[in-house]
Specification:
- By secondary structure, the chain is of the alpha/beta class.
- The chain has two domains: 142 residues, Medium-chain alcohol dehydrogenases, catalytic domain (Quinone Oxidoreductase, Chain A, domain 1); 141 residues, NAD(P)-binding Rossmann-like Domain (Rossmann fold).
- The strands form three sheets. Strands 3, 4, 5, 6, 7, 14 and 15 form a seven-stranded mixed β-sheet that branches. Strands 10-9-8-11-12-13 form a six-stranded parallel β-sheet, sandwiched between helices. It has a two-stranded antiparallel sheet with strand order 1-2.
- The longest helix is centred in the middle third of the chain and has 24 residues.
- It starts with a strand and ends with a strand.
């Protein structure tokens, strides 16, 4: 078993330059863990790209195999809760950050990181969701706690990205009226297909001057970019509305007064999918497998091999990605 060879995308640091290549690896190069998993599918996330370009805030030591998502079959287990042949999902925790991740055909991880695949979900569907879909699911769950579908419109920023597109599809499935925000006019048809009823150009939410409050427009919002767009969503949210935030690609700064919170009772909820508690994690995967699953889930992705990921990473880093990128690791 320890000498079995498998393929993995490996990032190496050479003279302060980070080089990506598909290489052969062996089982004894994997870290310790209760579960050895044959990966069927992974997916590409922005954090994977940061790991692949040497961002030490994500990955500290190289050589390294990124991939914060994996779905596959258990081939060996030291935990009686899992058996050989079980199909499982692993997202978050340290997978793909400082633990070799899903861009390898095998991973070895602690059993506490794994969720048994719901019977209504395929391995492929699980990775169409991936961390992006799971993050969208947490965001929708937080909205549902306080905001009903008849309360008004829900605004979603970064709408063509992984979290944004999944959020729109799930919200539309649940009967919410969604307003998508994007800087990509060519993708308006894609957003309407997801279920967005209205689309706003990014510029509409990028500048509000110094006004502490704006006209109330939204019952809630899901922000994936941060910065001025998040500020303006909060300033424009109706009384008792809920806004979730999960990204900072525009900016990590938030320049606000307390007025949206103390005059309108707006709630700002941060979304951390990496360390989401396991009982809630299992419950959310069940929702995503059943009543929250968009009918068009199979249309939200493009499928790539490990060899095709390099160009996908370049496009994602340049902000040119759309929807989800599924990684098929089943080729020998």
């Amino acid at each position: 078993m320890h000498t079995k060879v498998f393929k993995a995308l490996v990032v190496e640091e050479k003279d302060q330059v980070y080089v990506r290549a598909i290489k052969n690896r062996t089982m004894d190069q994997l870290p310790d863990g209760d579960l050895l998993i044959r990966v069927a599918y992974s997916s590409l996330n922005y954090k994977d790209v940061l790991s692949a370009i040497g961002n030490k805030g994500v990955t500290q030591k190289y050589p390294h195999t990124p991939g914060i998502d994996a779905a596959g079959t258990v081939v060996h287990s030291d935990d009686s809760e899992f058996n050989k042949g079980d199909t499982v999902i692993v997202t978050g925790y340290d997978l793909g950050m400082n633990t070799n991740g899903g861009f390898g055909q095998y991973i070895r991880v602690p059993s506490a990181w794994a969720v048994k695949l719901p019977t209504e979900l395929t391995l492929k569907e699980a990775m169409i969701y991936g961390t992006a879909g799971f993050t969208a699911g947490i965001s929708v769950a937080k909205l549902c706690e306080r905001v009903s579908p008849d309360a008004g419109e829900i605004v979603v920023s970064g709408a063509t990205g992984g979290v944004g597109s999944m959020s729109i599809a799930i919200l539309a499935k649940l009967g919410y009226r969604v307003v998508a925000v994007t800087g990509k006019p060519a993708d308006y048809p894609f957003l309407r297909q997801l279920g967005a009823l209205r689309i706003l150009p990014r510029e509409a939410l990028q500048d509000s001057g110094r006004r502490p409050l704006l006209k109330a427009q939204w019952a809630g919002g899901i922000d994936t970019v941060g910065g001025p767009i998040l500020e303006n969503i909060i300033k424009s949210t109706s009384p008792l509305g809920v806004v979730t935030c999960c990204g900072n690609v525009a900016s990590a700064d938030l320049n606000l007064t307390v007025y949206p919170f103390i005059l309108r009772g707006v709630s700002l909820v941060g979304i951390d999918s990496q360390n989401y508690p396991m009982p809630s994690r299992i419950d959310l995967w069940q929702k995503l497998a059943n009543k929250w699953k968009p009918e068009m889930l199979e249309e939200l992705y493009v499928e790539k091999t490990l060899e095709e990921l390099d160009d996908c990473m370049t496009r994602m880093l340049a902000g040119k990605s759309k929807g989800r990128i599924l990684v098929n690791l089943q080729q020998e």
